[in-house]
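Hi V.,

You were right to ask for the full record rather than a summary. Here it is.
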Amino acid sequence: MADTQQVDPKAEAKAERKAAKLARQISAFSKAHGGAEGQVAHIGERGARIVLVGEDGGWGDLVAPTYAIAEQAVEKSGITVHESFDGEFAAKVRTGPYEWKRMAGIQVGG
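Predicted structure:
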């Protein structure tokens, strides 16, 4: 007997709408930052994190309810997706005074 998986059309439509919304947000970020690249990472039961880095060094992130939806969103947006957040990709991130103060505060218990 073959295993078959029932697909809930309502759940599938909801996932498609979420991916489309995320893709619009990614595209808007890309437009605002002169282009963008991204990386998708599992964050446990919460879903997946889409880290975005703009050509100008600006960065941000979005959370998708599932890894599959995150992958669908970055594919729809057309950005370059990296397997990991290291090397040349990570070097593109530009941090400002706010981030440095936050990092220092964490180190000294703030």
